[in-house]
Amino acid sequence: MKVVSVNISEKKGTIKKPVDLIELNDLGVAGDAHSGNWHRQVSLLAKESVEKFEKEANRKIAFGEFAENITTEGIVLYETSPLDRFRIGDVELEVTQIGKKCHGTSCTIFKEVGNCVMPKEGIFARVLKHGSVKAEDILEYFPKIYKAQVITLSDRAFAGEYEDRSGPRIIELTQSFFDQNRNPVEIEHTIIPDDPEALRVLLDRAEDERVDVVFTTGGTGVGPRDFTPDVVKEMLDKEIPGIMEAIRLKYGMEKPNALLSRGVAGVLGSTLIYTLPGSVRAVNEYLEEIFKTLKHLVYMIHGIDAH
Predict the structure, then answer these.
(1) Which of 163, 147, 160 is nearest to 215 (CA)?
(2) How far is the C-alpha of 39 from the C-alpha of 121, rounded, in Å?
(3) Do the two domains 2-142 and 146-301 of this chain adopt the same fold?
(4) CB–CB of 73/113 below 8 Å?
(5) If we measure between CA atoms, which residue out of 179, 165, 28, 43 comes closest to residue 109?
């Protein structure tokens, strides 16, 4: 994988011109019209995408003609995901967006070329580490590896008197979710007794290790040993009440006992935390709703505007 061209334009909506070298800083490509304090600082497009369009257009397309800053070779860029990273020498880029809205005939590129491949196959990134980039530089790709932690709270399961079924079910569904999104994930599972301090220790470690998402199961009721939501809530930096409220209402309409769960959701540092009940059925119901917004929440935490 390598860089085949680096390109700059001084005005937005215009074709970029190849240059010998580009300098990347906190705002993106120095001297480029698209640099700035936002998530689309650097645009990338694969040579393979350009060549594919050349056949459709029946004409030669110059590097930069689709307004990409960096033209690459050897990787299918549009199959990457936000939070994946590229390294080019000293430069490090983080993917923030796949594709974009096409401006059609209001765009100079569209007028000159007759179409545009960038909205479908181009990607955007922000600069994490500064440096220079030029043609023939080696491109290294590092997909984001998500970290998930599952914590089962149960005196009986910890003592080996009861088989934990909800924890393994969370692992199964979480693995399936990330597989469907083509994102690698590492999942850690811990069984602890109903001990508030043991839970605090695990959550502190998850925050320090920048775990992406923590699911707890058990201890969300009103029994004398049910304290999970209380511990989590006091540790959260920001609560996200709508998720759990919606789940309780959705299933409580048919099963009133579902309204008795005190589960909470929120953010601790850069870690999302969800407290789920201790039954497999509840795990299935909760995760079905949680997964609808999980990736969007992760992007928000990392400052990526994915609206």
Answers:
(1) 147
(2) 17
(3) no
(4) no
(5) 43
Q: How far apart are CA 145 and CA 147, in angstroms?
A: 7
Q: Tell me the CATH architecture of domain 2-142.
A: Beta Barrel (2.40)
**Under CATH, which architecture does the 146-301 domain have?**
3-Layer(aba) Sandwich (3.40)
| pLDDT tens per residue across span 91-116 | 999 999 998 765 555 555 555 555 66
> What does each C-alpha distance from 19 to 122, 179, 188, 254, 304 come to in angstroms?
19, 39, 47, 64, 29
Angle, helices 196-208 vs 228-235, to 10°: value is 40
pLDDT tens-digit series, residues 266-275: 999 999 999 9
Q: What's the DSSP call for residue 221?
A: S
Q: How far apart are CA 13 and CA 9, in angstroms?
A: 9
DSSP string, 48-63: HHHHHHHHHHTS---T
Q: What is the pLDDT of residue 75?
A: 95
Predicted pLDDT at 56: 75
Structure tokens, 67: 């307004």
| Per-chain mean pLDDT for the chain | 92
